[in-house]
Amino acid sequence: MTGNDLQSYAPLLLHLTLAMALSGVLVLLSSLVGWRRPSTTKSQPYECGITPTGDAREPFSVKFYLVAMVFILFDVEAIFLYPWAYIFRELRWFGFVEMILYIGILLVGYFYLWKKGALDWNRPAVRRDRAS
Amino acid sequence: MNEFASQHPILVVALPKIVVLLLVLLTSLAYLTWFERKVVAHIQSRWGPYRVGPHGLLQPLADGVKFLFKEDVTPAGADKFVYFLAPFLSLSLAITSIAVIPFGPKEFTVFGQPTPLAITNLNIGLLVLFAITSMGVYGVALAGWSSNSKYPLLGGLRSSAQMISYELALTMSVVGVILMAGTFNLSEIVMSQQGFHWGFLPRWNLIGGPMPQLLGFLLFFTAAVAETNRAPFDLAEAESELVAGFHTEYASFKFAMFFMAEYSSMITVSCLATILFFGGWLSPFPQTAAFAWAHYIPAAAFALAGLALIFYGIRYLTMFGRVVLPVLGVVLGALALLFIRPGVTEFVQGPFWFLLKVVFFLFVYVWVRGTLPRLRYDQLMGFGWKLLLPLSILNVVITSLAIVLTQR
Q1: ipTM value greater than 0.95
Q2: Is B3 or B193 the better-scoring residue by pLDDT?
Q3: B42 to chain A, minimum CA–CA distance in Å?
Q4: The model scores a pTM over 0.80
């Protein structure tokens, strides 16, 4: 019963539905069962006891976007490696050489990123002009 | 309804399996918290939970009830819908990912239908597993953003950046195993690890195949610890700087749900490590006449544990313990007797070794947490991008080279 047909995905869907129902019930229960005595102080965002200043939805470091972009680049590589690994025993030397070329090209980009400091968390991603 | 059931026997069989698996999973989640607190306590020369039930055995239940009856505080500026969506997504995806894990080789019958020891046996099981687990980052990022508070925002950003960084190393470190097995089906990956070196050393992927995946395993487990946001990579909830990270503003059972999701993904990752590198349900002993006694190890282990519990339990400190512990011991002993029966002995081999290996990995998780200090954030990102990623690419190249060279 190794499922090649779509039918073997049905139990997965059923499992997901049950898991979602369970989590939904838990979320509802937590807001229904517990007691409630709301107050303005209680619903303030937590800032270690100090009165919160300003909105929390402030601009944050652009580094996080950079990480996300670099992630997409290498994740595509990983996704491409999977089907290659699947049929590698049929491709043999041809597959090996092709993948070395592909990884080589990616590694050039990787070392460029490294040189530019995109992988260093402490340095700014792009060097600013001295004037600014 | 009957007509529907007769047309779709696969669903009729799956439903009881799913219900049982979810119940077992939720119970083991609860007791994993107990296990972790106990082990960490003993590492630090403490007793850990001791008061609620004998040796704190009822502590998880007490915690659950307490979580349920706590006031559910929602922060003032929170985006209500997303705020409720985040724990829902985290938990439901975390407990779905266990559906593709096969626990043993034997089929058993439910309502006259033979069915594998897994919810479903997909031929792209590994891909489905990664697809579901990588969705977990949404729960963290949305929880951090929706709370409208500064600590959760920073914690959520940090941990989503961390999770996607280590996901690369995680997915790449598995490529070596796929190269050797040539399949995405988790059962077939386990079956590809059969056999023994020199008659006694199992050819699990860790030490077998054209290229032993020792490096792959180390990369996989390191990345998995980071991916599940556990110490020493638990920057998302670094108490000393971020209070509790992305779930700072969550209270009552929604807070507990993030923990359930975390522990559930710990279990899934341990199952995956077992399947990919440690031969899944395969026994470490050869199936030869000289090792026939190995079939009785599950029964012997349960019998010994049961006897120990009975003898320890009757002299326990409290009256309650003097009743509960021997009863537990008798249950274990009865299971041991059941395991000796001819048909059952063969059936329990797979699940027994599988779960033993999973428990070992869970112990390693807790052990690592009790031993290593937390990394700094720039060290963490540097470690992932500059060490794990190149090493996992190197592992792919070496493994494929070894396969090409040994192939005839």
Answers
A1: no
A2: B193
A3: 31
A4: yes
